[in-house]
Amino acid sequence: ESESKQRAFRGKAMMLKTAGFPVVKTLEQFDKKATSVNIAQINELSSLGFIERKENILLLGPSGVGKTHLAIALGYLATQQRIKTRFMTIADLLLQLESALTSNKLDYYFKRIINLNRLLILDEFGYIKLNEKQANLLFQVINKKYETGSIIITSNLPFTKWKEVLNNDEALTAAILDRLIHHSHIINIQGESYRLKQKRKAGII
């Protein structure tokens, strides 16, 4: 029994390490009163049934309202259930994809990173505009995970603005949104930025 517990502990620790979270955030730490988020919906998602059903979560809202916090918190719960999880910003994902493409290792990257992780968390969609190659690479990622795994994506943009990020390619944008939204939970979060609120409390602004 002791050995079994140790194996489980090491397994959780390894899943957490390989997930690549910048920091660990939990749902208990989330300020539920500061935003418009539907707490009942978040609590239902925390059961992680969406991963079993290969569904996506789209967290939309302005900067600083807790989108990344919620994404990491759900990802952390997944690692504690020993579910392979990977967190990346969109910028980091594109850097890795372009590097893999240049070195003729794109198929290997898809197998080892995109396909192997049951939950893929992509943070900060909308902060950088993608060129044609980058937009097509992102489509390949979304297409690979469609109905084979789950994606959590955070964005400061409504869907009507996504085309501007995706090289103004209307067909590609429609294809990406179609795959993301088909089996998904869309969470719109409104509220004041946590960071600005903390600075105001500290008297900085």
Put the structure in a nutshell.
This protein is of the alpha/beta class and about 200 residues long.
What does this 3D model show about the protein?
By secondary structure, the protein is an alpha/beta fold. Helices cover 51% and strands 14% of the residues. The chain has a five-stranded parallel sheet. Helix 1 runs antiparallel to helix 4, helix 5 (90-102) packs antiparallel against helix 6 and helix 7 runs parallel beside helix 9 (170-182). The model has no long low-confidence stretch (mean pLDDT 93).
Strand content: 5-15%
Number of strands: 5
**Number of H/I helices:** 10
Global Rg: 18 Å
Largest sheet, strands/sense/barrel: 5 strands, parallel
Basic shape: globular
Distance between the termini: 55 Å
Helix percentage? 40-55%
- Global mean pLDDT: 93
Task: Reconstruct the topology from this structure.
Blueprint: H1 2-19, H2 39-45, H3 49-52, E1 56-60, H4 67-80, E2 85-89, H5 90-102, H6 106-115, E3 119-125, H7 132-145, E4 150-155, H8 162-165, H9 170-182, E5 184-188, H10 194-201
Parallel strand pairs: 1-4, 1-5, 2-3, 3-4
Helix pairs in contact: 1-4, 5-6, 7-9
List keywords for this structure.
five-stranded parallel sheet
